[in-house]
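Researcher: Let's do a round of design. I'm pasting the structure tokens now; please hold your answer until I've finished.
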């Protein structure tokens, strides 16, 4: 026996999908625009590389701020809801994988300094 879905609910899913698609499209177009401006201004990439090297500590603080915000959102907003629905070891594995991914990203960002 199938449960009928109301038209508002069906339209809500479609609207959410379209909104997510448009946001992803806008972000992609914006990133391509920034990349094209950077390639126009600095075709070799030396100025951008020098800027990234000079501001690596500020960018590190920014990334730490982003990681802190994501961790807060995960542990205080999302995780309690997920634990209620499906407690288990897979959640812990996912958290360890995310932490490992962040560590690998940071090692890649700091490899020129560490070498």
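Researcher: That's everything. Go ahead.
Model: Designed sequence:
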């Amino acid at each position: 026996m199938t449960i009928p879905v109301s038209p508002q609910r069906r339209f809500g899913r479609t609207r959410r999908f379209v909104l997510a698609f448009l946001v992803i499209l806008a972000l992609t177009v914006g990133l391509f625009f920034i990349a094209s401006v950077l390639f126009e201004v600095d075709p070799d990439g030396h100025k951008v590389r020098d800027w990234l090297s000079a501001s690596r500590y500020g960018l590190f603080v920014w990334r730490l701020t982003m990681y802190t915000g994501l961790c807060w959102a995960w542990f205080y907003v999302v995780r309690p809801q997920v634990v209620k629905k499906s407690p288990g070891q897979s959640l812990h594995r996912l958290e360890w994988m995310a932490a490992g991914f962040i560590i690998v990203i940071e090692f890649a960002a700091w490899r020129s300094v560490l070498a």
